[in-house]
Amino acid sequence: MTSDAVPADPRSTREPFDPADVTWTPVSRRLVGARLTVTAIVLTPVLALLVLMAVFAGEAWLWVFPALVALLALWIVWLVPRQVNAMAYAERADDLLVRRGIMFRSLVVVPYGRMQYVDVNAGPLARRFGIASVQLHTASPATSASIDGLPPHEAARLRDRMASRGEARLAGL
């Protein structure tokens, strides 16, 4: 007969995704506004078109489609802040950790010595919200990572720091 031991520390069940020795830096909350704006840009015309179709057709059952789009929008409004809260990164001595996800969690560990180059991107909407993305490229596409929703000054600092750490680790080879 086996007994299932309950861990003394409830955080120990999150250990693969939340190591104890790591201080996480969250992404900017402005990412929520940017993602919700994209949702509004996409769903508003769809909702308007479906409402017009239901009004002009005069069929009551056609109102199901605008209702479904409205429910989808509400679900996204509920989900996006939770997703952004789950996003964070941590700098350690030899690598960078990037985590994301609520139900399907992901933790990417990018060793500084494997970095080939670092990109900083900010499209028009991201610039409007005052955020940028940092993309880390390695020799293996599986270990490449991106960090969305960083303030531009933090993205530039992280880019420079990652590039210098990558060069230092590469020089040691």
Core attributes:
2 domains; elongated; three-stranded antiparallel β-sheet; PH-domain like; 44% helix; 173 residues; four-stranded antiparallel β-sheet; 7 strands; alpha+beta
Notes on the structure:
With 173 residues, this protein is of the alpha+beta class. The chain folds into two domains: 54 residues; 84 residues, PH-domain like (Roll). The protein has four helices and seven strands; from the N terminus they run βααββββαββα. Strands 1-2-3-4 form a four-stranded antiparallel β-sheet. The protein has a three-stranded antiparallel β-sheet with strand order 5-6-7, covered by helices on one side. A hairpin with a 3-residue loop joins β2 and β3. It is elongated and about 70 Å long. The termini are far apart.
- Quickly name the level 1 CATH class of the largest domain: Mainly Beta
Terminus-to-terminus distance: 52 Å
CATH second-level architecture of the largest domain: Roll
Residue stretches low in confidence (pLDDT < 50, at least 5 long) are none
Shape: elongated
Helix content: 40-55%
What's the Cα radius of gyration? 21 Å
The share of residues in extended strands comes to 15-25%
Please state the average pLDDT score. 86
Count the DSSP helices. Answer: 4
In terms of structural class, how would the helical and strand content be classed? Answer: alpha+beta
Indicate how many domains the architecture comprises.
Answer: 2
Order of helices and strands: EHHEEEEHEEH
Report the sheet with the most strands, covering strand number, pairing sense and barrel closure: 4 strands, antiparallel
Give the spatial strand order of the biggest sheet.
Answer: 1-2-3-4
How many strands in all?
7
